[in-house]
């Protein structure tokens, strides 16, 4: 019986133009294009062992973020992974059983969404273990089909655009610029590290109920153009205001959805205000947020040491993780976990 073991690693990403609202939630087809920066430190590692031809349930294990022993993942974590494994196995017509072990290298309790990096690492490890190598575009498509749309962008390093459409089969992201072309720092400012109360998936579902949803869509062609050009010209100041405006709008849509979703905490607002002051003082810095209370503070690497203590000094900030533009997913033979 053939047994193949692969370990893959992929990084999370932070969107500058957000995916918020889907035309098809199950396979994550977005209402609008999005643009992101792939991170470096916030990574997921996944080992996949495929026992070809064997029957039985897949084994899905998790190495806790704080370290220690591998343990069986909780059901809500296992189910979408098992569904994704079945999707891959069925598509490639490879009957067999998987053992999956995953670990996030994110510092403990960072409160950062790990599904983008997690599903990209899983898709890469599992497809290789099936003996089905995917190129980056195929990895993007298959990672997206997990239902975590942002995983489409983690298939590439550097600066990435995920366009709208075309069809279910083809929709995938592509690289706008590499990580060596332009380095930007991301100071992930943690104000709350508990799990968010409303998932992104539920946020996408509610987004069109906001009366402001069409208004945000109308703004997007201009914003996309501003961000694309800033990336092409490595011009941080050209995109700072637009990136911030776009993130505030995502939360405006969430807060005005029916039922409303409030991700912000009082400290979130304090961080957003401080970042605006720092920019008014002349620093190349701006904020952006995922569907949660923490703030990603983007800045040029040369001012990182100036910005970091300012964020740490804000009352209510738990910690600040320093990350930056990172590379594409990688894989190697063997099950390391
Ligand atoms: C606000 O459906 O990709 O981060 O599966 O939880 O990672 P997860 O969410 P997903 O939606 C991402 C929403 C967002 C914006 C973005 O990353 O584009």
- Count the E strands: 14
Instruction: Spell out which ligands are present.
Output: ligand DP6
Main sheet characteristics? 8 strands, mixed
Let me know the average pLDDT.
Answer: 94
Count, helices: 8
List keywords for this structure.
337 residues, eight-stranded mixed sheet, globular, 14 strands, single chain, alpha+beta, four-stranded antiparallel sheet
Description:
The structure is a single chain. The chain has 337 residues and is α+β, with helices and mostly antiparallel strands. The chain contains eight helices and 14 strands. Strands 1, 4, 5, 6, 7, 8, 9 and 14 form an eight-stranded mixed sheet that branches. A four-stranded antiparallel sheet has the order 11-12-10-13. A hairpin with a 7-residue loop joins strand 5 and strand 6 (71-72). Helix 2 packs across helix 3 (136-144). It binds ligand DP6. Ligand DP6 binds at residues 15, 18-20, 34, 113, 115-116, 148-150, 200-201, 250, 290-291.
């Amino acid at each position: 019986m053939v047994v193949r073991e692969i370990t893959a690693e992929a990084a999370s990403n932070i969107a500058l133009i957000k995916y918020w609202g889907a035309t098809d939630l199950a396979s994550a087809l977005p209402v609008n294009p999005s643009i992101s920066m792939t991170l470096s430190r916030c990574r997921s590692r996944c080992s996949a062992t495929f026992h070809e031809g064997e029957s039985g349930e897949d084994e899905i294990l998790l190495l806790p973020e704080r370290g220690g022993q591998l343990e069986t993942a909780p059901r809500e974590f296992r189910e979408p992974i098992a569904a994704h494994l079945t999707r891959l196995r069925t598509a490639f017509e490879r009957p067999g059983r998987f053992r999956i072990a995953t670990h996030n290298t994110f510092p403990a309790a960072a409160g950062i969404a790990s599904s983008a990096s997690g599903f990209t690492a899983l898709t890469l490890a599992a497809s290789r273990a099936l003996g089905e190598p995917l190129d980056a575009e195929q990895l993007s498509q298959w990672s997206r089909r997990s239902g975590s749309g942002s995983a489409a962008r983690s298939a590439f390093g550097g600066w990435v655009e995920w366009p709208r459409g075309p069809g279910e089969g083809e929709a995938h992201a592509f690289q706008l610029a590499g990580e060596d072309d332009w380095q930007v720092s991301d100071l992930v400012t943690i104000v709350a590290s508990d799990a968010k109360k409303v998932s992104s998936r539920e946020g996408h579902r509610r987004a069109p109920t906001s009366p402001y949803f069409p208004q945000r869509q109308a703004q997007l062609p201009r914003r996309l153009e501003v961000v694309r050009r800033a990336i092409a010209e490595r011009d941080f100041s050209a995109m700072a205001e637009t990136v911030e405006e776009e993130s505030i709008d995502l939360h405006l849509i969430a807060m005005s959805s029916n039922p409303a979703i409030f991700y912000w905490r009082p400290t979130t607002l304090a961080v957003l205000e401080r970042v605006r002051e720092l920019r008014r003082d002349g620093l190349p810095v701006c904020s952006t947020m995922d569907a949660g209370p923490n703030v990603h503070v983007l800045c040029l690497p040369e001012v990182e040491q100036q910005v970091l203590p300012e964020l740490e000094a804000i009352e209510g900030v738990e910690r600040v993780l320093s990350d930056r533009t990172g590379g594409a997913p990688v894989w190697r033979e063997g099950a390391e976990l």
